[in-house]
Amino acid sequence: MQPVIFRWGLFCSLFAATAACADLPRDPAGTTERVERTGKLIVGQISGDNLSDQSAKILRRVAQRTHATVHIRQGAGEQLLTDLEEGRIDLVYGRFAKSSPWSANVHLGPPMGRRKIVGKDERVPRFAFRNGENGWITMVQREIP
């Protein structure tokens, strides 16, 4: 009798684990779904950090995938990153160092441009994402060459 109970328990555990992984990576705050539903991709652009041709192309591809229109909001880094953390905007574009104090609060994507290996204190163009929005992060970063 015990082997049957053990097998049943093992089956239920494996089924639950598989079901939990079905939609990975996830967006706990629903960024991808919201962008698709509203048709708006809201991007904060730090004043003085102009969008490169490459970053504009990435935004166009993401907008196309999500059937959204890109809306740019320029502003100070502190305010834009706060808005990102609180879910009022979807991405922030600017020049960030991996050692930035903000790296504890937001996900800093890979450097854009030809150089992929940079020092941790070197400020380079990249996107910042809301922490934990792994589906959104994965989708956008797939568009970065």
Automatic annotation (TrEMBL):
Classify the source by domain of life. Bacteria
Q: Which organism is it from?
A: Croceicoccus pelagius
Region forming the signal peptide: 1-22
Task: Enumerate the UniProt keywords alphabetically.
Answer: Signal
**What is this protein called in UniProt?**
Uncharacterized protein
